[in-house]
Amino acid sequence: MGQPVFVSYSQPDRETALALVAFVEAQGIRCWVAPRDVAPAADWAAEIIAAIAAARVMVLVFSASANASPQVRREVERAVHREVAVLPFRVEDVEPSHSLEYFLSSQHWLDAFPPPLAPHYARLCAYLHTLLGGDKPPTAGAGAMRAAGERAASASGKTVFAAATLQRLESELAIYIGPFARHLVSRAASRNATLDALIVDLSSEIEPQRERQQFISACRRALRA
Q1: Mean per-residue pLDDT for 133-146?
Q2: Are 127 and 110 in contact (CB under 8 A)?
Q3: What is the CATH number of domain 5-140?
């Protein structure tokens, strides 16, 4: 899809930013993110300015650290000066500093909490497709969404499970333990690195052993597609 989305972030949010990029690019939207897209031996500042100028949208991974970052503030200032749309993706419940509020007060915000982040990434992708005027993104099946999550995990060192995957696990677990399944799936998703480990972890909430094995088998069948 045409011009790339510039992703601005502060260094403490690097893993979150790279996971976001992996997820968004898996949905067919090109991103520009440093340091990945800075050419070797290039002038860093010049590359940043050129990338902002070439973008139609800046996604700002907004957090307390981004709020305090002079580099982030300069990037946002350049984007506003170039009339590039700025989309703050707020990963922490913090208000912008006065210097950033000046540039962001009229912008649309997306809140990306509470975790897990995958549903918020999916909502971001849908918004970007609309904002960029592209075709409606195809509806991804479980296999495609799982692949996107795996690419995000590779980029960040953490697994970001797709919303469709978590919803399916909630449905399967709810058969055995009821509506509390949603809370357990959300909590377990934050501490497991692979889908299979997540399924086995959730199975520990089920008694007796026979039903536990039924749950594991049902989840694996459902998510194999």
Answers
A1: 47
A2: yes
A3: 3.40.50.10140
